[in-house]
Amino acid sequence: MLPLLAVLTLVELGSGLVLDTLRETLFEFPSLLVLVPVTIGMGGNLGSILAARLSTAFHLGLLSFSPDDERLVGNTLATVGLALTVFPAVGAGAWLLQGLFGATELGLPTVLAVASLSGLVLALIAVAVTLAATYAAYRLGLDPDEVVIPVVTNTCDVLGVVVLFGVVRALV
Amino acid sequence: MSVREVAAGGYREALPVLAVSAGGGLFAGVVLGGMEAELEAIPGLLLLVPALLAIRGNVYGSLGARLASALHQGLVEPRLSLGDRRVRAAVAAAISNGLAMSLFAATVGFLLVLLQGRTASLAALLGIALIAGLVSGVVLTTAVVTVVFVGYRRGLDPDALAGPVVTTTGDVVGLATMLFAARTVIALGLVGGSPA
To answer: Which H helix or E strand runs over B172?
Structure first.
C-alpha cells in the first residue's frame, strides 16, 4: 500500500507545482481559488463514470472499438454533455458563493467562461484518456475494471490542474 | 440501442451523482478561497493542496472499501465501537498511512519550494501535515465507519456508500482541517521570517 501511495503522492505534488506557479493570479482573484477543488475532482469523476460504463459493456461483449459503435459514441456524448451542464453551474455557484463570503473581484462572465471552457477541455481529455486506457487494457488482456479506473482518476485529477492553469492563463 | 438513447440514458443516470459531488467540491472551494491569507503567509502550502486532498481520498476510500468487504464476509459486526480488533487495526492503519504520507508530502513540497530559490518553513509545513492529518483522520474515520455500518444495518450496500462519502466529505474536511492547522501553526509562531 505505502509504495503505491508514495508514487501517487509524488504525482499529485507535480500538479501542486503547476498550481503553485499560478499563485499570484489565484491570490488576486480568490473566485478562481474556489474553482480549484471542483476542477481537480470533476475530471476524475467524469472519466471514472465513462470508464465504468465502457468496461461493463466490454465485459458483456457489447463494445467494439470503432467510431460507429453506439455505446462508445453515446457514452462519449453523455460525458461531454454532463461537463457542459455541471461546469457552467459550478462557475455560477463559485461566483455567487465568493460574493456572499468575500469580495467579487472577477465578473460573472469571466468566472463562467473559465469554468465552462475548463469543463469542456477536461471532458475531452477524460474521454481520450479513458478510451486509450480501456483499449490498452483490452489489447493487453487486463481486466478494465481493475486497471482503467485508478489510471483514469489519477491522470484526470492531475490534468484538471493543468487545464485550469491553461484556461486561466488564456482568459484572465 | 441508438446513439441518442445511450447518450440520454448515460446523462440522466450520472447527473445526480455529479451534481452532489460538484456541490461538495464548491463548499471545499469556498474554504480554499477563504484560506487566501494563510496560503500567502505559508509558502509551499498551496503546492501541498492537491497531494494532501488525494492522500485523504486514497487512504479513507480504501478504509471504506476494507470495512465494506469485511462486513460482506461477516468478519466484523456492524456495531459502532472500536472494540473489534479488525476494525481497530484497519482504522489504525488508515490513520498512520495518512500521517506518514502527509509528512512525506510536506517534506518533498518543502524541497520543491527551495529548488525554486524561494524560502519556506519545514517546521510549519510538517506541523500542518501532522495536525491536519490527525484531525481529518479522526473526522473521516468517524464519518466512514458510521455511514458504512449504519448503511449496512439499513440494508444498503456498503461498497456503494463508502466511495461517495469519501469523495464528497473528504475535500471539505481535508481543506477545513488544513485551514485550522495553518492558523494553529501561525499562532504558534512556526512560520517565522517575513511571509514572502
So the answer is: helix B158-187
Q: Please choose, from the candidates B67, B46, B139, B151, the residue with its C-alpha nearest in 3D space to the C-alpha of residue B98.
A: B139
- pLDDT single digits (tens) B154-167: 888 877 777 777 87
Q: Please choose, from the candidates B103, B167, B177, B86, the residue with its C-alpha nearest in 3D space to the C-alpha of residue B137.
A: B177
Residue whose cell numbers read 491536519: B132
| Contact state of A74 with B53 under an 8 Å Cβ cutoff | no
Is A36 an 8 Å CB contact of chain B?
Answer: yes
CA distance linking residue B20 with residue B38, whole number of Å = 28
* Gap between the terminal Cα atoms of chain A: 41
Please tell me the distance from the alpha carbon of residue A2 to that of residue B92, in angstroms, as a whole number. Answer: 14
Does B11 contact A78 at a Cβ distance shorter than 8 Å? Answer: yes
Would you call A27 an interface residue with chain B, using a CB distance cutoff of 8 Å?
yes
pTM assigned to the model: 0.86
CB B37 within 8 A of CB B45: no
Average pLDDT, chain B: 89
Q: Is A17 on the interface with B (CB under 8 A)?
A: yes
Q: Do A75 and B28 touch (CB under 8 A)?
A: no
Residue count of chain A, please give it: 172
Residues of B in Cβ contact (< 8 Å) with A77: 3, 7
Provide the pLDDT for residue B195: 46
Per residue, the 3-state secondary structure of B82-138, as one string, reads: CCCHHHHHHHHHHHHHHHHHHHHHHHHHHHHHHHCCCCCCHHHHHHHHHHHHHHHHH
Q: Which three cell numbers stand for residue A119?
A: 469543463
Of residues A107 and A157, more confidently modeled: A107
Q: What's the whole-number mean pLDDT along residues A15-43? A: 90
